TrEMBL record:
<keyword id="KW-0677">Repeat</keyword>
<comment type="similarity">
    <text>Belongs to the RMDN family.</text>
</comment>
<dbReference type="GO" id="GO:0097431">
    <property type="term" value="C:mitotic spindle pole"/>
</dbReference>
<keyword id="KW-0963">Cytoplasm</keyword>
<protein>
    <recommendedName>
        <fullName>Regulator of microtubule dynamics protein 1</fullName>
    </recommendedName>
</protein>
<dbReference type="GO" id="GO:0008017">
    <property type="term" value="F:microtubule binding"/>
</dbReference>
<comment type="subunit">
    <text>Interacts with microtubules.</text>
</comment>
<dbReference type="GO" id="GO:0005739">
    <property type="term" value="C:mitochondrion"/>
</dbReference>
<dbReference type="Pfam" id="PF21033">
    <property type="entry name" value="RMD1-3"/>
</dbReference>
<keyword id="KW-0206">Cytoskeleton</keyword>
<keyword id="KW-0802">TPR repeat</keyword>
<dbReference type="GO" id="GO:0005876">
    <property type="term" value="C:spindle microtubule"/>
</dbReference>
<dbReference type="InterPro" id="IPR011990">
    <property type="entry name" value="TPR-like_helical_dom_sf"/>
</dbReference>
<dbReference type="InterPro" id="IPR049039">
    <property type="entry name" value="RMD1-3_a_helical_rpt"/>
</dbReference>
Length: 305
């Protein structure tokens, strides 16, 4: 949900400025005081709120070493960051990770938040081994945390800290996940405050709001049992963030178009829902996520008639 917004949230977009490029949130999410309550909360739409041939560990490490040989080494810091952003825009996830891993002990937040993003992206590759995925998720969170410690004025550090905190929450249970939701929103809002032109942060905030706005009353009640004061939001609040993201960077992300359509559906505005869902359906499918968005948009348009 709000977290998942942080997990697969954004489709890959080329970076046009330092720290501008980010993966879309299908990703800004969550997963998992009684077992019965936790199960009830994790079911249905609440799962959104409390909210990819696997290689062996040895094989994976050998593969990484081979990939690292293909990475071109730039000389200066600016050159390395430019190369990293180029590899990101080309979806060269393994090469990007190997390049930035050489700077894991850096004191520069610009290297660290990019390494957090690369570690996370690597964990989400198809057929990633479960244990390796978990390791990369927690690794990404540590890099994001260090980036924030090195420079709390870096908007991207705040954004990726929020995303990665959501990710690790999937392994820590419902109560921790809901508790982290407040922290996630704080860091996303700080990211927007530091860079109000970052469409991805705005989109993730919209997704966060949508997830809690969509939570049925009975699941809110269960959440209240687990957590005294669970987060709340409205479709109107979610809409404002999605529209702002679109204003900042029109058509930057197929998922944002889809979420606008779903938000208007939640608000019972059929005409506007049809408009945005049609745009989502017609969005060029460059990524797997774009194809998933297309399919969901088609299904929702059929329901709307």
């Amino acid at each position: 949900m709000a977290w998942r917004a942080c997990t697969r949230f954004v489709s890959r977009t080329p970076s046009t400025a330092r720290g501008a490029g980010v993966r879309g949130t299908n990703r800004c999410y969550w997963t998992t005081t009684s077992r019965r309550s936790a199960a009830a909360l994790a079911s249905g739409r609440a799962a959104l709120l409390l909210g990819l041939p696997a290689l062996s560990c040895l094989g994976y490490e050998a593969y990484n070493r081979m990939q690292s040989l293909a990475v071109l080494h730039a000389i200066g810091q600016e050159e390395v960051l430019e190369q990293a952003d180029y590899l990101y825009s080309c979806a060269e996830t393994e090469k990007l990770y190997q390049l930035l891993l050489q700077y894991k002990d850096s004191d520069d937040a610009e290297f660290l938040w990019r390494l957090a993003r690369a570690s996370r992206d690597l964990s989400l590759l198809p057929n990633m081994e479960a244990e390796r995925k978990k390791q990369l998720m927690f690794e990404a969170f540590e890099y994001a945390k260090r980036a924030l410690e090195k420079d709390d004025k870096c908007f991207a550090a705040h954004k990726w800290y929020a995303v990665c905190l959501s990710d690790v929450g999937d392994y820590e249970g419902v109560k921790v996940k809901i508790g982290n939701s407040y922290i996630i929103r704080e860091h996303l809002e700080r990211a927007v405050e530091l860079n109000h032109k970052d469409a991805t942060s705005l989109h993730i905030l919209g997704y966060w709001c949508f997830a809690f706005a969509e939570l049925p009353w009975y699941q809110r009640k269960v959440a209240a049992v687990i957590f005294a004061s669970p987060p709340v939001s409205t479709y109107e609040e979610a809409l404002a963030f999605f529209l702002k993201a679109e204003e900042v960077d029109p058509d930057f992300y197929s998922k944002n178009l889809l979420m606008l359509g779903k938000t208007y559906m939640g608000m019972k505005d059929k005409q506007k829902a049809l408009f945005w869902l049609t745009k989502a359906k017609e969005y060029p499918a460059h990524t797997l996520e774009d194809k998933e968005v297309h399919k969901e948009a088609v299904d929702l348009l059929k329901k709307l008639g």
